[in-house]
What does this fold into?
Amino acid sequence: MRRRDFLAAGTATLLTSAMPVPAALAQTAANNRPGLAMPPVLDATEKGRVDLTAQYGSTAFFDGAVTRTMGYNQGYLGPVIRMAPGGLGARLHNELDVPVTVHWHGLLVPGAHDGGPHASISSGASWSADMQIDQPPATAFYHTHAHGRTASDVYAGLAGVIHVTDGRDDDRGLPSAYGVDDLTLVLQDRRFDARGRMTYDLSMMDVMHGFVGEVMVVNGQIDAIAAVPKGMTRLRLVNGSNARIYTLFMSDDRPMHLVATDGGFLDAPIALETLVLSPGERAELLVDFGDGRSVALMSGGDPNQGPMGMMGRMRGVIDRVVDRSFTVLDFAVDDTLPTRIETVPDTLDGTMPDLESANVRTRRVSLDMGMGPGGRMGSGMMGPGRMGRGMMEGEGFRGPMMSGMGVFGINGRPYDMDRIDFEVGLGTVERWIVESPMLAHPFHIHGTMFQVIREDGRAPRPEHRGWKDTVLVTGEIELLARFDQPAPADFPFMFHCHILEHEDRGMMGQMTVS
Ligand code: C2O
Ligand code: CU
Ligand code: CU
It folds into this structure.
């Protein structure tokens, strides 16, 4: 690594927030910038087997400051699992003291193999699933989904990335050399205490808006620099943050060519200036580094955070007053790396969604933050203007403010593992109208890829035209989904907000598909 070249420009990637990171920590990071590492690869394409162990780890995000973390097969996060269509035997062993699952977010498998809350296994136990992978190439995600502890345990590290591949990316003209011109980037934001240990202490505001950190962590590393060849590089982005919504752009505004969404390739690349990526979403971009210049991937502020946080519809207002943008990842062109691809392909072989919408069943899904029995945020006693100081300072989650608060649900009801919310017909298409009355919520459905057909009353944005399993709902999203995977009552599919603090507190429902 030629990291020496960048020392002068080095500043730690610290996000602005109410909780400043001690200067000493920023200094440590600035003076010692590592090269970005890729997760190790667990290649299941040949053997059709994946063996995972959920385990504890000791991770020094900052030199000399060790945090107790969790990971799959390693101390923090998990390997990139490469899999190809065909049979896949998966096994998870739990070495932790707490219950765990492995949910395959983005794999189209039956409810019994999906690894949702009903597949939770206790300490010392194992779980296995004999799956069939039958879907186009895609970048998917896996993480624990034990109800009530998904947020804390994903935060601690129980998450990883899946590449579903058919080995034909050369034919598509796409970069595919792992860690060279095909980079996997898990974007996370974390908080650290004065000694540099990662912390997860929820205040009432963290629960309401979702927990965001001040320090950007990519693939478990702080302030790393990604070496790229002087040519086209593929960035497989996974938003593995608990709650942070990124508005991504390149520091010199060069285009980012979107080639794949959650469900896989588009029919042709789409050049974007900005890309909003909310928790649980994935996107594959091509970025041209052919001019040899060092640039950064940046993000604007989170629409759910800051003084205007509770008023999701006023997002953007604060950004016009204060620039809240920050560096997600710095890139440095390394011309010793081979340049394999120099142009963006004109077309791709993905199939765009075009589901039949006539005579389909319509369901309404309201992502609710109640303020007590029957009450809704904004219409009840606690309007945005009354988010008092007392809540931000001191009054912990279990404090007196707790009574009547933190009621998260869907259609007015918090998640109940024993209640089936929807019964969907196997092989049918449905229209779901999903609304977020207050904050922006990333809405995710298990067991399907869907088509966004309307977004706040308009045609979907370009980046929402491909197959999706998670979409940010800022007002109202209308989607079509076909449910081709079965899910019985003992292993139903979830649908939920992917702000993990909201999900754990009940902004989730479940359905059978039969
Ligand atoms: Cu990424 Cu239900 O989860
Ligand atoms: Cu999922
Ligand atoms: Cu939410």
